[in-house]
Amino acid sequence: MIFLLGLLCSIWGEPAQSLEEHRGFNFTEDLRQLAVGNSSVYIATEENLYQLSHDLTLIYSLTQRGILKRGDQPDKEEFYRDPMKKAWNTTFRVNVLLPFVKNDTLISCGVTGNKLCGFCEVLDLKNINKLVYSEHIQVGPQRSSSGSVSFLVDVKKNSGQTETYILTAIKNHRDKTEEDRCGTDLKTINLQNTNQNQSGEIFSWSDQSGDKPGIQTEADVDFVDGFQINSTVYLFSNVASGGETNKVRLIWLQAETSKSDTLKSLRGATLSSSGGEGSRLLASSVVPGGQQVLWSGVFSVDKGGENTELLLFDISPDLSREMNKDPDFYTSVNKPNNPSVRLLKPKVVLLKQNFMSSVLAVRLNNWMVFFIGTADGQLIKLSVDRKYQPSCPQILLRTSGDNKVFPNLQLDPVDHKHLYVPFKNQVQRVPVSNCRTYQNVKGCLSAQDPFCVWCVSEKSCSFKDDCRGSERLSIPDESKQEIVSHRFLKDSTGEMKIIIQSHLTIEKKVQSNFTCDFSTTSTQLCKKQGPKPQYPQCTCILNDPLPADGLDVTMTIRLGDTSLSEKIKMINCSSIQGQPSFHLCQRCIRAGCGWRQNSCSWASDAVSNDICTNIEQFGRNFSEPEIFSVSPSVVSFYGRNQAVLSGRNLRDVTRVRIKADLDCDPKESPVLSNNGSSLTFHIPSTEAKGLVKVCVLLPDGSCHGNFTVTYQTSPACTDITPSSSWRSGGRKVTISGTHLNLVEGITHSPTLQEVMPLMSSSYQTLVYKTPAAKNPPVSSSNVFLKVANKTLECSKEITYYPDPEFTSFTAVKEGKDVRITIQKKADKLQITEAELLVVGIQNEVEHSCIIIPEEINKMTETFICEIKDLQSSDIDMIKVTYGDESITLNASSRRYFLILLIILLIPITLVVVFVVYRRQREQLTVRMNKLMENLECDIRNDIRQGFIDLQTEKADLMENVGAIPFLDYKHFASRTFFPESDSLIKLCIKDIGQDVEKVELDQHCQKFSRLIQDQLFLTTMVHALEEQKSFTVKDKCTLASLLTVALHGNLSYLTEVMEVLLKDLMQKNSAAAQPKLLLRRTESTVEKLLTNWVSVCLYGFLRESVGQHLFLLVSALTHQISKGPVDCVTEKALYTLSEDWLLWQAQDFSQLKLKVLFAVGSDGEVSEPLEVDALSCDTVEQLKEKILNTFKTKFGFAYNTSIRDVNVEYERDGSFLPLQEVDRGSEVIGDVTKLNTLRHYKVNDGATIKVLSKKTHPPLSAQGSVKDDENFTGKYFHLIDPDVEEDHGKNPERKKLKLKEVYLTKLLSTKVAVHSYVENLFRSIWGMTQNKAPLAIKYFFDFLDAQAENMKITDPDVRHIWKTNSLPLRFWINILKNPQFVFDMEKTPHLDGCLSVIAQAFMDSFSLSEIQLGKHAPTNKLLYAKDIPKFKQEVKAYYKQIREQPAVSDAEFKDFLNGESKKHEGEFNEAAALRELFKFTQRYFTEIKEKLSSNGAPAELLEQLQHVKDLFDELKSCSWN
């Protein structure tokens, strides 16, 4: 299926042209890699991997799209292919594709994901759908494969066995701006394993010693090619050497012993070219075979890469040079000292041709054949003989567009007769030769093609392999322009001889059957007693002297059954006369004569062509011509008719010669006209694109001047506008396409002889006028581009319609002007105002009527124009001109129309009254229906959007949120102990750097401390205080917290006191027959004391196991809330868990990604841009918050300026506009002002925002925050409109009816987004680390079970309720609803509302009762209704596990408590707590004393109490307060 789509979606405008049919494989994505195996071709594109047969038939395909999932380890991600396209979230981009034929595998490596982390697959070589192995590892470049190379290298070990490694040479740039986010430590050149059996396993780059050897560089390096021959590895690269200079470098490596030894065997050389230090290597190919290692490279010799040349080098390695002394590449940590480098110069320049981009070399016998791809879509073949003499280039492929040939040409591995030519979206299979196209032996062998032989038995030209069991004729080892040549000799006796020489390679048995025959129309030419023919030469001794005017001779050579005939004009050498010149000498030598003493004569021995080089170049009979210009100098490869050549001394020019590089295939064009300074001629067509040289020929054969003409791709058209014309023709039509500046004219079918001239033309457009139609009234006509002698058909047609019919006009006076309305019959011409010219005629005077464009009515086909400053509207006639036609409309038609209108007006008026009434009623009905439809549509869209949010919502908060801002223990404890009293918090804790009054536990405090250490006194005091009606619940909580602080150093004693007080409370509840209410509320001192005790004992568990999950939940909630609109005034949000905080009145909004710059200093410098997500409905204050939050998340620390001291500016049209919360342009409804949003300032997606500090960049007008206003909520509004009557027409968005119930799905989508965090938090609380609950929980639950047994309570529900009231309700709910107790953060009222919903779900999980929920149930109950049963089962299992856990011994628990006391020793101000405690004792001193007496307290205890009171009284009287 993919193959069929590829064939249908061809990338070419026209089919590619070559001399023999060939096939290709097309794909829609861009090509990344092309590799060839033994019998298959492998193509990696941006999104697919294809396996093709050698003839490019699709065998298998494999998608490279898939899913990136988180692996077992936190930092690891794994790539999977998934048949569900909707699940795809990443692409495997292949940068390395290596067929490992020896192992029957295909190695495919690249990168995945946004981080571009490495990934490799090993696939079955015969079926790429079979995965052998995969691993996330970096092999090859991390980004594009351009500038990097990779190939397999065989390293011969000392043991004699061979190991195969992957050599990767990775592009290196010194100014790397993007960090490596995957932690790879690859060097510039590496060797990596290919199988698991090698040391370090597959893909490892470690050596047997464990080291990771590699070659590194500090220079900018682009690698071009690499390969291995025998044990030597060759690597080619471009190395930037500063500025705009470049070096082409060659590296040799000896692949022996090990990876490390291979890389350390580094030797290097620099390749020179005619481009000097500015040249770059673009492509390369080694010439296979031969004793020398010959290598060809395509070099660009200019900066733009337009001028290129193909050079041949001998790159045989010099193993005598010292290793690892290269100036650019080295294996050690530091650069080598005294580096040395070898300079290699080319053996020969093979070809100069523009835009060469790729090369592939093959060797045939003593010939080398180079296949050269170009950037303008050509494939050129160049044959070079053993003396490095190139024959004329041949064009194997020419595309109609400028499609670049990629630098990776490959040979068909099966038949070796085809090439794979890669383009951006296609790979073509092109034959290496077109032997079958030559019809005779002369054409076959004259082509100088080493692939072709003449098969004698079949009498056809074919490949050598295709001619078996037959005699073969082939070209020799040296390049010859002719296969048969002749020359004249005159010996000392005066005898004349013709010597015929054959330049062929034939078999010995054919050489013996070699004959020559000479024939003329008259006499016998040769004497019979002449020498016998002996291959490759035969001689004819002339019978008679040669006539003065020469003689026509037919020479026939027979080689077995094959004959070669050549007609020559035998010229009398003495008749070639004239002024001695180079061209006269060349003419003499070509005639077979000799040149002596500056004249042409009979030769006495063999003549060399070089004899003419030293002769003066120009004759004296003509002035030397000069060429100034050729117009046009750029033509298509079809040529150009009537080209103009301008210059000087052109009078004697007879022809114009056009020749390409190597002087091959020169073409001559006759001069059509000549005035001495300019001449006209036809530029002939050619097969090749590129530059050619133009010179002018004089009668003596000399050619002068050197001007350049460029052959380009043929023109192509893609669109025609307008696509219709009226039959009379003359309509202006614009053709769009490419290379349209090369078009000479336009023709239409069927009359192709009529050529329409061009009005204007450029590269992409041309304009012409259509010819008149010859076909029926409505017909289509094909459009053809006339290029030289070719007509190229456009893919679009022009449709001819009848000419427009203008029926009538009316003229009306409007002010000083006259407005004319012209009626026209409806048609399909779509005439525009620019195509019409209207003239009004009044009293035989013409007045120009200007057409009004906006008044053209396409439906009724009317045109309106105005005549300026005309007194009367009595227009006699109008003249309308379109194209080349004009029509005239008389005013009589207008009067007839007015009379008819008056007659019809009376009855119509009566009908109109009735119709208008009915229409108004219908319109009212339609408006009401429309209103209801819009309302229904809006509600439907809101519901659909809610459903989409619900289905697509996911938590996109990163798991790694950086350092969690935990509060230290003393701040956590003090906030838990005194949640409503900041003064007591400051009093009871010691902060670093805080000047706390250092109060020693002097006598009065020590005495009171010892007093409360007495359990009888302390329990009695608590009971006495609780019995007082004036002792409030708040006082009881304060008392419990002060006791916790004062006794924090002795937690075991505090635990004993708490147990005594709890037993008393249980007895009290039991007596009241309400055991289930125990610990439900904090109404007694001991209940608050229990809360504090649990907080102290579980702080370690909270921080180590629960804290991270709680922080992630809070962060996820904050992130989810900020994803949607948040009303700045009421703080309600679209995304929330609480119905009370739901912003259901929100209007439409859009997501924005802003580039934020931070001003650095006061000189206008800015930081690197920071990407910040915002909404179009955000206020300026909300934008600031999001910027500072993103800054903190990105860098891990807060911005150094607070939000109040920050200004923001928006870049618009190159300048920065300050953003203010309110300004003069702010919207006002009644007396309420709307806060400015980003939509108000028209901030678009991708806009740039600058952040400035008010300290360094003070604003022009100081503006404080509007939130500082005492009546902020009354004066301002944001997203919720005030209850003020307003004109909704100004803002139709506000007319939309918003229903709160429609937006309840936002609660559910928010729940879905944070649900995983909620589950993780809950399970971290009731999870069992190593199947053990914290010691304090186990100890206290056992205490409750023991008390229940003592009180003979058998109901298990009571025990469950006690445990729930003491732990989840008393501690965890407090933590869930107050994260600011645990972290250094602020809790907003909105966040508090969301946390309350989660806390309710948490408590419902511990409830024993089944809650029946109906449609009127609150949303906070419904939200987690389906999750509660599952949580309840987990809670029951949690309680059961604690119950079955081994009991905690008293000693073990006491050690735990003592450890907690010691851990936090000195963090609390014990003296301050004791003093605050004594205030309660002092206030109720009498009541406490009486309680002690009634409880039978010892007299010593009462005396101690009195003594303490006296001490404190003395202190108070001294000055202490």
Q: Would you kindly provide a written description of the structure presented here, covering whatever features stand out?
A:
- The protein contains 26 helices and 75 strands.
- Strands 60-61-64-63-62-65-66 form a seven-stranded antiparallel β-sheet. Strands 67, 68, 69, 70, 71 and 74 form a six-stranded mixed β-sheet that branches. The chain has a five-stranded mixed β-sheet with strand order 16-17-18-19-23.
- Helix 11 (1033-1046) crosses helix 13 (1085-1123).
- The model is unreliable at 1-21 and 992-999 (pLDDT under 50).
Topology:
Elements: H1 2-8, E1 23-26, E2 31-36, E3 40-45, E4 48-53, E5 58-63, E6 65-70, E7 77-80, E8 90-91, E9 93-100, E10 105-112, E11 117-124, E12 127-135, E13 149-156, E14 162-169, E15 189-193, E16 221-229, E17 232-240, E18 246-254, H2 259-264, E19 267-271, E20 280-287, E21 294-300, E22 307-314, E23 342-344, E24 348-354, E25 356-364, E26 367-374, E27 378-384, E28 394-398, E29 410-411, E30 418-422, E31 426-431, H3 441-446, E32 452-455, E33 460-463, E34 472-473, E35 484-490, E36 496-502, H4 508-511, E37 514-519, E38 537-541, E39 551-559, E40 562-570, H5 582-590, E41 594-596, E42 599-601, E43 626-631, E44 634-636, E45 640-648, E46 655-659, E47 667-670, E48 673-674, E49 678-683, E50 690-697, E51 703-712, E52 716-721, E53 724-726, E54 732-738, E55 745-748, E56 758-761, E57 765-769, E58 779-787, E59 790-801, E60 806-814, E61 817-824, E62 836-842, E63 845-851, E64 862-867, E65 877-882, E66 885-890, H6 892-952, H7 969-977, H8 982-988, H9 1003-1012, H10 1015-1026, H11 1033-1046, H12 1051-1071, H13 1085-1123, E67 1151-1160, ...
Parallel strand pairs: 19-23, 44-51, 53-59, 67-74, 73-75
Antiparallel strand pairs: 1-31, 2-3, 3-4, 4-5, 6-7, 6-8, 9-10, 10-11, 11-12, 13-14, 14-15, 16-17, 17-18, 18-19, 20-21, 21-22, 22-24, 25-26, 26-27, 27-28, 29-30, 30-31, 32-33, 32-34, 35-36, 36-38, 37-39, 39-40, 41-42, 43-45, 45-49, 46-47, 46-50, 48-49, 50-51, 52-54, 54-57, 55-58, 56-57, 58-59, ...
Helix pairs in contact: 6-16, 7-8, 7-13, 9-26, 10-25, 11-13, 11-24, 12-13, 13-16, 17-18, 18-19, 19-20, 20-22
